[in-house]
Structures are given as structure tokens and as C-alpha cells.
Amino acid sequence: MIRRCICLLCMAAAAAGCSRNIPALESGDLLFQAGKRSEMAGAIAAATGAASQIDYTHVGIALCANGADSVLEASTEGVRTVALKDFLAEAGSIHGRPAVVAMRLRDTSGLAASLLRARTCLGLPYDYSFRPDNGRLYCSELVWESYRRADGTPVFPARPMNFRAADGTMPRYWVALFEKLGEPIPEGEPGTNPNEMARDPQLREVGRWF
């Protein structure tokens, strides 16, 4: 009898542990993902990560409708929507759970218009050049372009981009990519990245999956 009670308590605790890691999402929440260690994700993390912090390498926009959650994202497949479960499956893992954190704007007054702008970007190609105003978008650029105040200014600031690792070296991935594109690496040009965006004080965490 005692053994049976202990088993039931363990099962209840495990179930509670699973349920508490499922955020109650709202459309417009930003989902920050620590990606699997592809070469590109590693190069982004090396350039934008910080000690003792999660290295976010991707961000998407939550869309909630009719009880189904999806994510609007700018991936290497272009700007598209994917099911939330697929977005989570593409993340790295922390303690066996998807390394994804949900954050929400403290001021959501202009969110409806921002979501409309984001939806108009569907189908645009991925921006391997990481440059503004070229008809292409990378993940945090999609958020930067879409999330605007009533006067048209971006909610999130653009800052000089850094592609170098913490030791000052340029990762091989970036060198090879921009040589292939025939373009200079846009070091120091204005841009955004998921790590800095996730630390913006205009956002508050509303849940995580790990």
C-alpha cells in the first residue's frame, strides 16, 4: 500500500512538472529559441551570446487562433508559418525539454497592427546578407520590421552588428558565407539579433518549456 502511494505521488509530480512548462500563449508573444548546434547557430551564438546566459539563435512570433498555436518565422526556408510543435522540435534541449522561452511586450497597444505587418511578409526569402531594405528578412529583422509604434518607429532598437566571436576572431562560417555572396561582412552596420532582443526591458517572460 505504501509503495503504491509513493508511485502515485511520483506520477503526480511528474505530470505537474510537465504542465507547468507549457506557457499560455497569446498572439504576438515572441518565442526565443536556443537552436541545435548547426554551424550557423553556432556562429550566431559565438557572436551574440553572453556568459551564463542562454544563447538564443532564433526568434518567432506566436499566432493563436481557434485553439491551435503556430509560429510566424523567418527561417532559411523564408518567411513562413509552422506549427508550434514543429518550432519546438527544431530547438535545442535543456534537461530534455525544448530550449524555448516565451516573452510578451509590456505595452501591447499596437500589437494588432504589428501582427498585420508581419503577415504581409509571408513568402519573402531569408536574408543571408543581414542587411536592411533588401526585400529579404532574417528572424529578428522580421520582428524589428513588424513591431512598430503608432508613429512608425521600431519598438526594438537596431544596434551595430557584431559577427566576431568573443576572442575577436571571425568564425569560418561567416567568412565562407559572405565570400559566396560576393559581399563584405556587414560588421558594425545596424541590425538586430535574438540575444539582445530577448534582453530588452520592454519584454517580460511569460513562460518557458524547460
Distance between the termini: 33 Å
CATH architecture: Alpha-Beta Complex
| Contiguous runs where pLDDT drops below 50 for at least 5 residues | 1-19
CATH superfamily: endopeptidase domain like (from Nostoc punctiforme)
CATH class: Alpha Beta
Strand fraction? 15-25%
Main features:
alpha+beta, endopeptidase fold (from Nostoc punctiforme), two-stranded antiparallel sheet, disordered N terminus
How would you characterize this protein structure?
This protein is α+β, with helices and mostly antiparallel strands. The chain has a single domain (25-208), classed as endopeptidase fold (from Nostoc punctiforme) (Alpha-Beta Complex). It has helices at residues 2-19, 39-48, 84-89, 111-119, 139-146, 172-181, 194-198, and strands at residues 30-33, 58-65, 68-75, 78-83, 93-94, 97-98, 100-105, 159-160, 190-191, 203-208. A hairpin with a 2-residue loop joins strand 3 and strand 4 (78-83). The chain starts with a helix and ends with a strand.
Topology of helices and strands:
Blueprint: H1 2-19, E1 30-33, H2 39-48, E2 58-65, E3 68-75, E4 78-83, H3 84-89, E5 93-94, E6 97-98, E7 100-105, H4 111-119, H5 139-146, E8 159-160, H6 172-181, E9 190-191, H7 194-198, E10 203-208
